[in-house]
Amino acid sequence: MDNAQPELPPARRDPVKSIITFAIVLTLVFGAVFLIRTVSLQSEQFDRELLQHVDHVNHVAPVKISEECNLIGSTAGPGRVLTNIYKYVDLIKTPDFDSVEFAEKNRLALVERYRTDPSLKKFRDNGLTIRAQYLDSKGELLAEIEVKATD
Predict the structure, then answer these.
(1) 129 partner at 20 to 30 Å CA-CA among 88, 108, 111, 120?
(2) Quick check: 91 and 137 in contact, CB under 8 A?
(3) Contact 101/119 with Cβ under 8 angstroms?
(4) 87 near 132, Cβ under 8 Å?
(5) What is d(CA 151, CA 148) in angstroms, rounded to the nearest whole number?
């Protein structure tokens, strides 16, 4: 007499648990896709607005900033960078011109403006870096300053 037990079929999962697990996984997948798409759309919208801003600046340039300086143009990129190009009217770079001192002096004002100007809030909120290039009256670079949203 053989004491072999009859072979039992494999245990089946509860169909309700399987359906609930499938629903949870499906919800997580669709939620992740929706979140990624939403973030992507917001990023694309900001990029379009940035390009529109650059187009507007370049259309109205030169813009008189002060008696000594004009905004002559703007570019976007690479990445999340807005570059504004300023040109001094009567300043010519000399061999003894101190670019570091010039940059430090102007950086403080640029940081303060970026932190507080309501018109720049969207730029700050989207992590945009603002770069300012200062040229002398002959077009020679005096200094370049970068200000990040975290500065």
Answers:
(1) 88
(2) yes
(3) no
(4) no
(5) 5
| pLDDT at residue 145 greater than cutoff 70 | yes
Higher model confidence: residue 86 or residue 1? 86
Task: Please tell me the predicted confidence (pLDDT) of residue 20.
Answer: 72
State pLDDT tens for residues 127-137.
999 999 999 99
What does DSSP assign to residue 1?
-
SS3 label, residue 71: strand
The arrangement of strands across the sheet holding 63-64 comes to 63-64, 69-76, 81-88, 129-135, 141-147
Q: How far apart are CA 139 and CA 93, in angstroms?
A: 9
Residues near 109 by beta carbon (within 8 Å), at least 6 away in sequence: none
CB 82 within 8 A of CB 54: yes
CB 143 within 8 A of CB 134: yes
User: Euclidean distance between the first and final Cα of the chain, in Å?
Assistant: 86
Query: What does the alpha-carbon distance between residue 99 and residue 138 come to, in Å, rounded to a whole number?
Result: 16
Here the tokens at position 84 are 């504004």
3-class SS of residue 8: coil
pTM: 0.71
